[in-house]
Amino acid sequence: MERLDALLRGEAPSHILPFLWMKGEDNETIREELVKIEECGIREICLESRPHPDFCGPGWWENLDFILPEARKRGMRVWILDDDKFPTGHANGGFIRNPEKKKVYLAERHMDICGPCRSGAVLVENFLQPDGKLLGILAVPKPDGQTLAVSGDGIMDLTDRYENGFVYFDLPPGPYRLFVLYTTQTGGGREDYMNLLDSDSVRVLIDEVHEKHYARYPEYFGNTIAGFFSDEPELGNVNGYPFDNTMGQKDRKLPWSGQLEAALREKWGDDFLADLPALWYESGEKTPGIRVTYMDEMTGLVRTCFSGQLGSWCEAHGVEYIGHIIEDDNAHTRMACSIGHYFREMEGQHMAGIDVVHHQIVPGFTEPVHQWIAGDRDGEFFHFGLAKLGSSAAHIQANKKGRALCEIFGNYGWAEGNSLMKWLTNHMLVRGINTFTPHAFSMQENDRDCPPHFYARGRNPGFACFAALMKYMNRSAHLLSEGIHMADAAILYHAESEWSAGNAMFFHKPGRMLMERQLDYDVVPADMLRENTASIEEGQLVLGKEKYPCLILPFSRYLDGETARFLVSAARKGLKVFVIDALPEADTLGRPLPPGWDQSAQTVSLSEIGEAVEKWEEKLGNRELTVKDGERTLRSFLLRRPDGLTAMYFNESVSRPVKARVSIRDKAYGSVTVYDPWRNRAESYYLKGQEFPLSLDPGEAVFVVLDKNIQSTQPFPVCTGTQPLCVDWKLSRAQWPETDFTGERLLRAGEELPNLNGPGYWPSFTGVYRYECLFQGEKEDRKCYKLLIPEASDCVRVKLNDTDLGLLAGFPARADITAALKDGENRLELQVFTTLVWSRKDGASTHLQIPATGITEIPVVECYETGQEADKEERNK
Q1: Name one Pfam family in it (predicted).
Q2: Are residues 779 and 833 in the same domain?
Q3: Whole-angstrom distance between the N-terminal and C-terminal Cα of the chain?
Q4: What is the pLDDT of residue 373?
Q5: What is the pLDDT of residue 204?
Q6: What percent of the chain has pLDDT over 70?
Q7: Which of 685, 716, 747 is the last residue of a domain?
Q8: What Cα–Cα distance (Å) separates residue 236 from each residue in 253, 290, 325, 355, 784?
């Protein structure tokens, strides 16, 4: 309870570092924005350098000369986005000045030739791009004319037969494909960008950005300057955002560097050149092994040259390195706009990062086909996999210190109000995300760059509610930080399996089956399953501080060989291993799996894995909290600390309530404390039969704390009566930021409450709608009263009898009205704040369904029995 007590005292460190758009504003404007950020309880910012007109130039230094002392005076920390362009890798134009160090690609051109042939020739000089450097020329047999496959055997190296732009050859009978293999710096993705596989190339970014900041502000490093943020660095071998860029795609350039070439030559020896065509075309049995080796070495260099080098530089200079990659639509194991292996890229960072922007996550869209700005997939990954990547890395990579960061809210458009933001916040919290970069604060009037912008120069009617949301976010994140996450299973990361076969099952498929049964998991990369990293204790997989009762292997034709050997040993020590659908055929290099492998795992179907894990947990008898009668939409997160347990439950349904019970294994717990981060209040209740009720409306979350030292005699309140406010409502409105309400209208009792931004009302209005009514109340001692607002948009301020009861977001929602309620006539005022979508009609908002504005369902006064009366009511039920 120490952490909860600190929260109730108003003590919590920062878990929020929003982007602050930097566009060269004057100092007074910057100061005003910092004041507004501070009003939100936010004590860190991340300077978004991308839109600044003079990054690392006089204009940028002038801004930082003001911001850093101003931040220090306010006790704020500053992060710096580490480049002048999006994504990270342009190095502030460093590769225009150092073109020899920019990205390099491996490329191939080919044509078909046929034998028998003596002294044949092909003009290949034109196959090379102007800067192309020839690696080699091969004649590769074609096994058939029906596919693009080539043979892995009988390959002839013609490199030494290249002369004067022609290659000369003698061929035996049969069809061949003539490959010209070369490297180039053109024709791939973004020009003048960093090569993540080359230490010297990455050093250009450090010299052009990091070193320049350190040279100017060394006294701020490690205190006011917290560190640097990389935004979506990419391999960039292909232009744009093809999320499916895997091995085996023709006409695609591949990431390359001298360091990668040296590593592959060492691995493949004399077969180096002959193995390369298999990166694009099927080449028989050796294909999976070649592709896995390439991806393994390539992503290992990303770890070493890029994130490892940046992380080490930051550590040496007293700051930290954070950020995220593109994970979208399962791209995190792939190339192009992503990085090839999520966990390897994250190793150098000091927080595990993800982002949710562009409508990737929308309530209710949990299936694979889900339209968002950049595509129409994969809602299932976004709901059941994305956040688990970040929280899992935070749990198992020691340098993260348990911190998982999410860049959130960005470019959903002005249609995204505080209610949706609260839902997204809960979605992330219950999956273990505990640090946030809200996207974004902008100091430009009517900025059309990736809204929403939270203060919007005073134009956002919902800003006061946003400030309340930020305090809710920070308190919740702190409550769910710095403990031991208690997972029911580990799931093997599918990277190597996908590299080898391409049809491997995604890790989030079984993850979904667990989450829909209120079972939690971490995803674990094969890199961690080594004897010197992972261990088995009392039949559980141990990674750092984390313990997993079982390990799940998603279906794949191939399994990493070292992982297989570890699992044979682990199974002998008692670890339960589940394999989805069928056992792998071989290891990822095409070799037989180790002896005893087939006896080391239990095969279960995807649909049965949740039940199988649940039964295994019941057999072990070590599950601390178990949900009874839970719904598929209910999510859970459990954390252990020395003084007890902390749990969060969130009903993600858009329409169905959840009524369940949570049983507690340890009988030493006699009470449960329910914490409300929105109001920063907590109440303890005694347990009956080692259970407590879980009743959640759609979109509602609850936080509970169990402490053996807390023994309450108070029962849970029981709702014993409801009073729908079927009364006349006086309606008026104020155009934001004005506060004078005008244009009164009467909404008669019994009439349907309308969409106030709908037809017949005010479709372009942005501001505040005020609902006023009188109602008769009956107030009794020792009872609690709440006002339920079943449906509203976007956020609501509640005033009862001139007492301000605060703001609400995310509906249904309740306000405690006990203190303000009178026995007799009561005057209720509800102020509804709109979003700016109705007036600004921004492009990003076209991808988001907009709820009806106003109070659209009749509010209800609820009466709750407390104390002994509540106990009687519960017994009667």
Answers
A1: Glyco_hydro_106
A2: yes
A3: 32
A4: 87
A5: 98
A6: 99
A7: 716
A8: 10, 21, 12, 19, 59
- Give 194's DSSP letter: B
Domain identity same for 729 and 708: no
- pLDDT given for residue 503 in this prediction: 82
Does one domain contain both 737 and 850?
yes
Residue 577 pLDDT exceeds 80: yes
Residue 530: pLDDT band by 50, 70, 90 thresholds?
Answer: confident
- In this structure, are 726 and 707 located in the same domain? no
Q: What is the CATH number of the domain that holds 777?
A: 2.60.120.260
Distance CA 847, CA 863 (A): 40
Burial class, 556, CB count within 10 angstroms (exposed 0-12 / middle 13-18 / buried 19+) = buried
pLDDT for the residue numbered 501: 85
Domain that holds residue 688: 625-716
- CATH number, domain containing residue 658: 2.60.40.1180
Instruction: Report pLDDT digits (tens) over 62-86.
Output: 999 999 999 999 999 999 999 999 9
Q: What is the DSSP secondary structure assignment for residue 385, as one 8-state letter? A: T
The H-or-E segment that residue 523 falls in is strand 521-524
Q: How many CB atoms lie within 10 A of CB 82?
A: 26
Q: What is the mean pLDDT of residues 785-792?
A: 98
Is 445 within a domain?
A: no
The answer for residues whose C-beta is within 8 angstroms of residue 210's C-beta and 6 or more apart is 82, 228, 310, 313, 314, 317
The SS3 call for residue 719 is: strand
- The candidate with the shortest Cα–Cα distance to 510, out of 607, 421, 584, is 607
* Three-state secondary structure string covering 646-663: EEEEEECCCCCCEEEEEE
d(CA 613, CA 550): 8
- The Cα 410–Cα 633 span in angstroms is 25
The per-residue pLDDT for 526 is 96
Query: CA-CA distance, 410 to 420, in Å (whole number)?
Result: 12
Amino acid letter, residue 581? D
494 and 601 part of one domain: yes
CA-to-CA dists, residue 601 to 399, 550, 571, angstroms? 32, 11, 8
* Number of domains the chain contains: 4
pLDDT tens-digit map of 474-507: 999 999 999 999 999 999 999 999 999 878 999 9
Same domain, 732 and 843: yes
The answer to whether residues 585 and 498 belong to one domain is: yes
Q: How far apart are alpha carbons 549 and 170 in whole angstroms? A: 62
Question: What is each CA distance from 690 to 136, 413, 625, 877, in whole angstroms?
Answer: 71, 46, 10, 18
Spatial neighbors of 759 by CB under 8 A, at least 6 apart, are none
State the Rg of the chain over Cα: 30
Tokens for 138, please give them. 């091969």
Give the per-residue pLDDT at 238: 96
User: Which CATH number belongs to the domain containing residue 602 in this structure?
Assistant: 3.40.50
CA separation (Å) from 244 to 235, 248, 296, 299?
13, 11, 18, 17
Q: Is residue 79 part of a domain?
A: no
Phi, psi of 494 (to 5 degrees): -90, 10
Burial bucket for residue 287 (CB in 10 Å: 0-12, 13-18, 19+): buried
544 lies in some domain: yes
Distance CA 417, CA 833 (A): 9
Confidence of residue 873 (pLDDT cuts 50, 70, 90): low
Q: For the purposes of burial, counting CB atoms within 10 Å of the CB of 262, is it exposed (0-12), middle (13-18) or buried (19 or more)? A: exposed
Q: Can you give the pLDDT at residue 874?
A: 55
Please report whether residue 604 resides in a domain: yes
Global pTM reads: 0.97
Q: For the segment 216-260, what is each residue's pLDDT rounded down to a tens digit? A: 999 999 999 999 999 999 999 999 999 999 999 999 999 999 999
> Looking at the structure, do residues 709 and 739 belong to the same domain, yes or no?
no
Average pLDDT over residues 461-476: 98
Domain boundary among 656, 684, 716: 716
Residues 220 and 319 sit within 8 Å (Cβ to Cβ): no
Could you give the CA distance from residue 269 to residue 343 in angstroms, rounded to a whole number?
Answer: 29
61 confidence band (pLDDT: 50, 70, 90): very high
What is the per-residue pLDDT for 104? 97
